[in-house]
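for the writeup, i need someone to sanity check this before i put it in the appendix. the sequnce is what the collaborator sent (i think, or maybe the updated version? ugh). structure was predicted straight from it, no edits. if anything looks off just tell me and ill rerun, i have time this weekend
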Amino acid sequence: MTNNRRRTFISYGGFLLLVQLAAACGPAESGKEEAPQARPEANATPGASVEPGGKAAADADLVVAFGDSLFAGYQLGQDQGFAPALERELAKLGQPAHVFNAGVSGDTSAEGLQRLAYVLDGLPKKPDLVIVGLGGNDMLRGVSPEVTRKNLTAIMEELDRRNIDVVLAGMRAAPNMGRDYAQAFDPIYPDLAERYDVPLYPFILDGVIGDKKLLLPDGVHPNPQGVGKIVSGIGGTIAKALDLIGRQ
């Protein structure tokens, strides 16, 4: 492990402690039972995408960013969160798409599973691609990796049943969770990607965690520059997936 990567992972451990102390991602608990509901964030605006030049693209691919605060645009402006930033990145890559923000701050994998059908059924059309980015809050709360794996598997099963393509955005356990936890948690994402034959972006926070210039003052969530770093990393994976879908 390089010195820079070691320092980043140490900072990631500090990030875990901050979240556990501040509960910045929200009050949701993994075992909480409640009716599915939409809890839109600041930039959750369906149908707002435009092609370069300002022309609306009603027939553009529909991508759903289904996750937690990292997708929701926590404390960011209307056009600064993951969904609008990814739209801009995909346009730059020549693969324009509508990106619908289905991120909810605080969501665990259990809560994501609970609202999945509600989100999909409420869309104007069947999505071409869903980006699944859940599990971080499970890890931060110490939820059993077996539970997280079961919930994420159920999410993948439902998307597969509906014949919806998926890109899986991975998470990694912070060092504070211990080796045993990491050995059970970290393989969830590559295992599911292999099982369902879907693209995997291994770590959604790669290159962001540990860099104060890319984080909000809470030291936890990405600022607009951090979001830009995230989408520049994952954007190529999304664009390639959309291109392959278009060739089918």
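Residues 224-247 form the longest helix (24 residues). Residues 3-22+40-247 form a domain with the Rossmann fold fold (CATH 3.40.50.1110).
thx in advance!!
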